[in-house]
Amino acid sequence: MSEQILVxxxxxxxxxxxxxxxxxxxxxxxxxxxxxxxLEAAQEDRSVRVVLIAGSAECFTSGNDIVDFLQEPPSxxxxxxxxxxxxxxxxxxxxxxxxxxxxxxxxxxLLLHCDQVFVAAGARFKMPFVNLGLCPEFGSSFLVxxxxxxxxxxxxxxxxxxxxxxxxxxxxxxxxxxxxGAAAIERAREVCLALQQLPPAAVALSKRLLKxxxxxxxxxxxxxxxxxxxxxxxxxEAHEALxxxxxxRQPDFSKFL
Length: 257
Known about the structure:
Pfam families: ECH_1. It is found in: Peroxisome. Its main location: other. Keywords: Isomerase, Peroxisome. A 6-stranded mixed β-sheet has the order 1-2-3-4-6-9, with helices on both faces. Strand 2, helix 1 and strand 3 (50-54) form a beta-alpha-beta unit. Helix 1 (29-44) packs parallel to helix 3, helix 5 packs across helix 6 (150-157) and helix 5 (140-148) crosses helix 10. It is 46% helix and 15% strand. The protein contains 11 helices and 9 strands. The termini are far apart. It is α/β, with parallel strands linked by helices.
């Protein structure tokens, strides 16, 4: 298991903690693989009743590590990031998330696949896929409009408009906004401990029934988004956007029709 993903056990609670503070918990291939491995193992481990995904009290994740991402971009369904997406999307036990500070890109979209989400009021969310010459991922083009409506979804996904923890609650992305990151993590842990006391088969069945009306369509959308995302990574627009990001300059899209 990567030291950048800390795995903590407390009775039936498994906590997966993002631990790369020097890079604002930016996610690498190694970290995605560790998360996927942990979720796949937890799915088969009957002693695990609930999973908590958290960062620190100051930062959830700044999204993908762009340098690592460009060195070996995802190329197919077996890529670490897609393995993680499938493991989380298909996980049958409750998943709770605690968010403080920035939650960028997949740091926001993964929350759409969690059952309970607790955030610091000042947490900062952003899905800047188009800004990077890419496209929405992890089912966000399907799930976000269901939550906030098509017009607001266009602001969040086409313009990359950011929002706060309190807005995340108003949008239906999070359950509660707490005073700070420490409070959000503690509240999430309290809910996890309560969930693990419930009858596990009844909880799993309820989760399956809640997702049943849309899960097949969601899987189709996630697959299509993934294929398009990989294609976009090789596009001139994405090359310009990602190069500008690494070079700390403003991108120039004026030459693109």
